[in-house]
Design a protein that fits this description.
With 499 residues, the protein is mainly α. It is built from 20 helices and 12 strands. Helix 5 crosses helix 6 and helix 11 crosses helix 12.
Length: 499
């Protein structure tokens, strides 16, 4: 058995969606815990903020961790524990510190403290340190910060960090009603759960000297500390839920694969030591070391994440790709009816789509033309491809050629016919196929056209081309260019044409 096996914890508050920064912290902790047979990853839900906590947020945390591969069924997983269940232990810790003389009661109001200070930003002035107040209404419990000397935090990422005690006020650890503040509850829980490594975000570094003082005052050796670099956006601003897309659930809903997200998040501040970036979890886990984490801020590049995801999608087997796409193809959420959807058709088109989508959510606009009664109406695509002078004759020629019952309805033959039709009209293939693509799919971009026509079938293809021709005629005032010569004169002088 490993001596002093690693015990790390992930301690989120259930007050909102699951932040990608929290996901990164959880993964780093998970990797460290799994490197030892006896290593443990402790999930503790810090739910003492009753006004903001919601049960659905707690469930969301557990589901998000499971999506990342941090599963409660794994022997390295422990919990979830709930901070609210340890309120008694928190009070005991506060009482212990008071009896030891490491904490004292204070009845100063904020206004009184500010009135005594020339600079209110200096914080509490220690007025009640030696007044000997006992517990009572309106009296909060403050920790007595040692005089002189610094608290030294040995951080595995940032090295030795010193905090001068003169800059740390005697901070409150329990309110006047006896309820402990987070700083004490957090330490008491870590002690109770045997946590010996704390890996968390850089924003918590300022709390660390207070927590280390509490660990020592309660008679325990502080854990090893490691504060991860802040994650920033493209403007080098810290990721904000008010400004940036930070909710892990958003990426799930768009169709990011968990293995791609895990791979990308692990590289936010850490690298495996070679030039590889695309690397499965099984290879990253044993290589991870907190000491290799860079202290510089980490840029969350969504474009790079999309590229990672595309790589992972293309690495799936076709069967697995089909399986992963099903939530987006379900008629309950997709734009087509259950009667129109045919999974055999999707299986046939899946290899074409798999090489083109970066996220699974993009599968619907790539294949919807196969399962809708009519193609989608995309005004930009229509106006771009349906120029009357080229689109009308091209659609007419395509319809004539594709209607030939002797034509073998397969991609090479379809390509040859449309290429020939375009040649006759002086159009290269790209220009020739554009109006046909929009007529049958509704969009100027998508899957390879000729394979799409094969799957759509002759009858539906011709009907859609005919519908596009009718729309063009209507937009031109009811008369298509090819029909203008067929309009009869009303008399010898052609009065019908001039009226």
């Amino acid at each position: 058995m490993t001596e002093n096996p690693i015990r790390v914890r992930f301690a989120p508050s259930p007050t909102g969606m699951f932040h990608v920064g929290g996901a990164r912290s959880a993964l780093f902790n998970w990797a460290l815990a799994r490197q030892q047979d006896e290593g443990r990853f402790v999930l503790r839900i810090e739910d003492t903020d009753a006004a903001r906590n919601k049960p659905e947020w707690t469930e969301g945390i557990i589901q998000a961790l499971a999506w990342l591969g941090i599963s409660a069924s794994d022997p390295h997983f422990e919990g979830p524990y709930f901070q609210s269940d340890y309120a008694g232990k928190h009070r005991e810790s506060a009482e212990q510190l008071y009896k030891q003389g490491r904490a004292y009661y204070c009845d100063c109001t904020r206004e009184q403290v500010q009135a005594r200070r020339d600079n209110p930003n200096l914080g509490y002035d220690g007025f009640c340190r030696d007044r000997g107040l006992e517990p009572g209404p309106g009296r909060a419990l403050r920790f007595r910060v040692p005089e002189g000397g610094p608290t030294v935090v040995d951080d595995a990422i940032r090295g030795r960090v010193e905090f001068d005690h003169a800059s740390i006020e005697d901070f409150v650890i329990a309110r006047a009603d006896g309820s402990p503040l987070f700083v004490l509850a957090n330490v008491a829980d870590d002690i109770e759960m045997g946590i010996n490594q704390v890996i968390r975000g850089e924003e918590h570094l300022s709390n660390t000297p207070k927590q280390q003082l509490l660990w020592e005052a309660l008679g325990h050796t502080p854990p090893g500390w490691a504060h991860l670099p802040v994650i920033v956006n493209e403007k080098r601003q810290k990721l904000s839920k008010r400004r940036d897309k930070v909710a892990l659930e958003s990426y799930q809903q768009e169709g990011y694969l968990p293995e791609a997200m895990v791979n990308y998040l692990m590289l936010l501040g850490w690298a495996p030591g070679d030039d590889r970036e695309i690397m499965p979890w099984a290879e990253m886990e044993p290589l991870f070391a907190v000491s290799d984490v860079n202290s510089s801020s980490a840029f969350f590049d969504e474009k790079k994440l999309r590229a990672f995801n595309g790589e992972y999608i293309r690495g799936l087997s076709v069967e697995e790709f089909v399986r992963r796409c099903r939530p987006w193809l379900d008629p309950e959420v997709a734009p087509w009816s259950e009667e129109n959807y045919d999974e055999d058709v999707f299986r046939a088109v899946a290899p074409l789509a798999q090489s083109r989508v970066a996220v699974l959510g993009e599968i619907v606009p790539n294949v919807d033309f196969l399962f809708l009664d009519e193609p989608v109406d995309d005004p930009k695509s229509w106006s771009k491809a349906m120029k009357p002078e080229t689109a009308a004759p091209m659609l007419a020629a395509a319809r004539e050629r594709l209607a030939d019952p002797s034509l073998d309805w397969e991609p090479d033959a379809l390509r040859a016919e449309l290429e020939a039709a375009g040649f006759d009209l002086g159009l290269k293939l790209g220009k020739a196929q554009a109006p046909v693509r929009v007529a049958v799919t509704g969009r100027t971009v998508g899957l390879p056209l000729f394979e799409s026509l094969e799957l759509l079938g002759r009858e539906r293809t011709l009907l859609r081309i005919e519908a596009a021709q009718e729309r063009l005629r209507a937009e031109q005032g009811g008369v298509a260019p090819a029909e203008a010569d067929a309009v009869p004169d009303s008399g010898p002088e052609g009065t019908a044409a001039t009226e």
